[in-house]
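--- STAGE predict ---
source: upstream dedup step, 1 unique chain passed
mode: sequence only
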Amino acid sequence: MLRKIIFLLGLLPFCAQAQDADENKNAGRFMLGYRSTMSAFSDVGFTGFGVGGHFRLQFGPKINSEWYYDHITTDLGGLGRRADEHIGWSVMFYTFGQHTEKGKFTPYIEAGNCFDYTKVMTNYKGGMYADRGSAAVHLGLGTHYNLSERADITLKAQYMIHIGENIDEKIVTDEQTGARNLMITKGGTGLNGHLLITCSVNFLIADLWKGYLFGKHSKDL
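--- STAGE serialize ---
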């Protein structure tokens, strides 16, 4: 019996090595990306557009992470503007594993959270102004289209729910003059959700686990 236990214990390093080899597939891939985002955030029905950047660090064949920053602006019917800044992270789950072959699609499920700063103001001098900071969680679906083993285009849609003080926007029309004014009010704490659609271009910079940088081994640089 003791011999069997010693034999099994002796096999553990080889089993762990075999498992790590599979789990470490694509692990350590470090990518940089440029992103453009469309946001249906405004209470008065206007769409915001923004730009940002992110980096990705992959932990295994089915788990990747994305650390991002977005700056989104919304024109509120020419009467005011809204600016949203998001900084956060996401975890991407590749349910079928990640494939980096050229011309292949890689779908995934995404979840994460972020912190944001929002300010809303009217365009005319002396008008209304409000700002707030909040936290948010988000869940979405996306896919990579692999241009090559080192580059991809990613399209995703996610729903983000902010938890914090509300900022309400409303366009009011004067019945006598027909003039339109933007009313901004800051209310109590609540939930505020919106849809984000993001398109990004991403490039592999390094394979950190294997010591590769820009396609070359670090010892050759």
